[in-house]
Fold:
Amino acid sequence: MKSKGILDSGAFTAFSKKTEIDVDEYIEFIKKHGHYFQGGWISLDSIGDGEKSYRNWEYMRQQGIDVIPVFHINTDEKWLEKYMQETNYIAIGVLARNLKMRAQLPAILERLWKTHLLDNEGNPKVKVHGLGMTTLPLVIRFPWYSVDSFSAAMGASRGIVLVPELQCRKGGDGKIGYKTDFSSATWMEISSRCRRSYRPSGSSYHALPPLVRKTYLKYFEERGYSVTPLENSCKRPLPFTRMKKTKGGEGALPEYKPLFDSHPIKETAESPGSICLTDDEEQRFLYNLDFWKEFQRMFKTPIIYHSPGNLSHIINKGLPFLLSYFPLRNEGAALKKMIEILGGENSYEATKAQQKGESVP
Structure:
């Protein structure tokens, strides 16, 4: 099965680095490489500026690029209405940078859906994409057409994995099973990389009662993964798991990993398990992708585009992927790697030759 991709402009990354993306260069990139992204291309938005985001979208369409516009939840809702009058596929920017907005996000989205996005019968008026929609309850709660998530890679790097909710089995035998619809899944600490693992809690696998832990271990083993005792793992927190405080001291944002990282990171020199979630970040990433794949079989919508992580793993799993233009824009090593993964080892040379009007044997 060939994976379906979607291209994001990377405007937030550029904003965070205090730089700008040239809209004309983005247009040229799409004209050259847009065929790799059958899911579409997301317009160059301007963080916090609804009018500029609209003008960029309008300009890109005038240049023959039918991009998906972006409405940010903290901008005037008249822009959302304008988009809905002019196109049938809209992206909602839901990035919450502080604790207060994160807490208000469900209510904000609830109002947007009821006020603007749903008709009188409760059906979506247009197709809606949720940008950075990593919170599972919000993915399920609203009728998104698509979302993108970096949770598989981010969770793996932070030492956590997605697991289904447990329940007592019918029949009163006192045995524990797990729900199979995954609608109430949650994140579980499984590695010494998770900072909170130093203070065992109900969400830590290693702090669970033996019977509950045994049930989850069986769940992991059925899917080809193992877990080792935390005592066998290195207790040293790594730099990219530490959190950076945002302006004003509210909330925290995790540091991002490179776009293409194909090297597994071992946390311990001696590990009794060969495919061990406790010790190996790459295996946690693969496990999280497996979870999302199983989730997608049960919930056909929304389409969930996954951010790498490791693009090869996403492709090999047959899952949809999202890439950002920002790290690809200089047409260097990252773009070459992308083309090799998506189109074969000779595709990069073929693309360059095609641009020069040359033929490739």
The two ends are 27 Å apart (CA to CA). Residues 182 and 295 are 6 Å apart (CA to CA).
